[in-house]
Every structure is written in C-alpha cells, then in structure tokens.
Structure prediction request, 431 residues.
Amino acid sequence: MRHIAVIGSGPAGYYTAEACQKLFGDAVRIDIIDQLPVPYGLIRFGVAPDHQSIKGVSRRYEAVALTDNVRFVGNVRLGRDLSIDELHDLYDAVVLATGAPHDRALGIPGEDLRGVIGSAAFVGWYNGHPDHETLAPPLGGPDVAVIGVGNVALDVARILSKTRAEFAGSDITAPALDALDAATIRRITILGRRGPHQIAMTPKELGELGHLARSAPQVDPADLPPVEADAALEPGLRKSVAHLREFTTLPPKPMTVAFDFFAAPVRIEGNGHAERVIVERTRLDELGGVSGTGETYAVPAGLIVSCIGYKTPPIPGVPYDERAGRFANVDGLIAPGLYAVGWARRGPTGTIGTNRPDGQAVADRIGAEVAGGSGKEGRPGLDRLLSARGIDIVTFRDWKKIEAAEIARARDGAPREKFTSMAAMLAALAD
Prediction:
C-alpha cells in the first residue's frame, strides 16, 4: 500500500490524485490536505465569477473525492498544524500542489501606496477568499489602471466594467457586487510594456470586452502594426489582435477600457494613496526586446491593480527557486519522496487543463521511485497527530454541507452565495 499526501486541493492536486488512483488502483491511499475548509483552489477563488462554465470542471474533482481511497482533509495548514518532516514520516510521497497565490511585486517606487493592489488579492476579494474578505478596494474615483496584458488583466477590467444586471448567474460575492454597483469608475487604462502582437490574452476573453452594456474598449490605431504583419502570428493570437483592430472603430459608451500599449510603469505617485502612475513610452527592437524611450507621462488612477504574475510562497525546509517564484525541482522532483505539481512546479503558466498531464507525470514518477508497502502509517497516523493537537478536520462530505448552505442562501439566479470567512464556513458546518 502506498500512502500519498497531496498539499493543495486545486486542479493540480485533484488531477494528481486522479492519476495516482488510476495508476495504483486499490493499492493507494491519498489524503488531499488544504488550509481552507473548502476545496478546488483556483476554480473557486481564481476563475472569474461570471465564467461559470469553466467552474464545471469541479464535478470531475468531486467524482475523485468521493471514492474510498481519496480523502479531502480541510482546515489543516502546513507549517502551523503539521510540518513537512512529519508528513515525510507518515507518507511514502508528499506532493506540493499549493499553486501560486501570492502576487509578484512591481518593483517600482510607490507600489506600497494605498490603492495599489495585486491581482491575487483583488480577484480573491470578488471571489470570496477569506484572506481578502476585508480588502475594500477604492472604487470611488473615476480612473483605474490595470497593469498587464494577460487574461487576468482582462478579468479585472471586465469585472470593474459590468453593470449589476450583467452579473446575473455569476457567483460574485454580495459585498463585492454591492461595492462595484456603487463605484464611480469612468475610465480603465490597461497598461502593457509591449505591443498588440505581444499580448497574452485569449480571443474569447478579449472578445467579451466588446459586448458590455455600459463599457467600450478603445485602442489607438497608431499602436497597431500593419495588418499584413498579423499573418505571421499563431492563430489564437491572430484572432485576439483582430479583436483589438475591431476596438479601434467601436462607438464610445459611458465607461471606457483603454488599451495603452508600449507603456511601462516606472513609479506610482500620490499623497498617502495612489493618484497616478507614471509610465515611460517604450519601443521594441527587432528581436522583440523592449527598451525605454525616455518619454514619460501620467495616467490618473486612484486604484491600480497589478496583473503581472504570481509566485508560490516558500515552505521552510523545501528548496525554493527565488527567481522563478516556485519550488526548485527537476521534472516535478524536489527531493526523494517530495514532489511538486502545477504552478508550484512550473510557475504560473498554462491553463487549468495543463495540470492534468502534469499530475500524470508526477504520478508516474511516484510509481517508479516510491516502493509500495513501505510500512508507513499514512492516514491513521495523520488523524492521530491532528487529534492530539486539537485540530478538527473538514472532510469532503463536510464540505458538501457547507456547499448546500451556500446554495440555500444564494440571491435569485446565482448558483451560490459564498461564505467569505473561515468562521462563517465552519459555523455553517456546525449548523
């Protein structure tokens, strides 16, 4: 019997459990350990609340979770309630699937001013993550800047742009919905260091911006390369650039989402809180590199959301790659018996589905490198350790009770109304 602990219950964690289950059959016991009482990680707290179809993948994870040899162990924090060394003593393999929940720093003066928020925190706020329940982003001004040209930047801009009615059917939290409904934003500027051909926005998500009730995207035609240059792009990017070309001709609406390309933020200014971001005009060289021109200008913004990437938080005793912002590993192997999958392994790249082959690869490594029948205690040992420390775990069936309570309290048309604090989640379970 192999005993495997997976730390993190997001897509990478569940795909790894599924792969191990298929590979080892009844000869494996897998505990999926998460610091929160609720599973699914990025699916619950990262995917935009108005993209419910994407969240449907959780049904696949539920099928894995309800099998006899996989168990969800919620409300257990690594580093507080137990250590990596203790997990090594109990399990044949420990797999870190902790994702990359922390924002990368901008690295410019003024980023510590009030009103400058990383996308992990901002997205966590409107998605109901307990760590960001009290964020209270400043939404009372007319101008917002969004730094970055990936899908997260698109999500942030779209969520800020929508009317209350356009959130019908979403699971955005009620406090976030009320705050956004009362916002007085009139202009959102998306800042990108490079040009339209270097964006990381997918066509479906970019196209959504052109069909909002009160908001219209705006692109300066001078920022676009000649149309014939689009032919060299891969098909997805070519479609995205086609959307940008369409945005140059759209009629204005009360709110504008302006794409400002070739604009590198160099500092943020304000009297105790963000008031403007100073950007430098950039240019591309023949190899696609970017350099500053020395020309600077100010973009007004009382709220600045940085969408430039994420990093995995380090864990004491686990080798860490500071430059890449993830655990140091070779093809998923950190050290004998210790593995990483998903963003904790490769950094914040790829889609949700990218985690599936990633989990399979690590399962195969465990099969080749970890002998079966080692005699380690696994699940019973973990239960005894946590019980001695007075820690009450939350199982998957417990989570289903929390989920039922969220569904019962949903506003009309919404799939659920999330509990946004640990206390509320556990109280719902107690009720």
Notes: The domain at 102-306 is CATH 3.50.50.60 (FAD/NAD(P)-binding domain). The chain has a mean pLDDT of 95. The first strand starts at residue 2 and ends at 7. The chain has two domains: 2-101+312-430, 102-306.
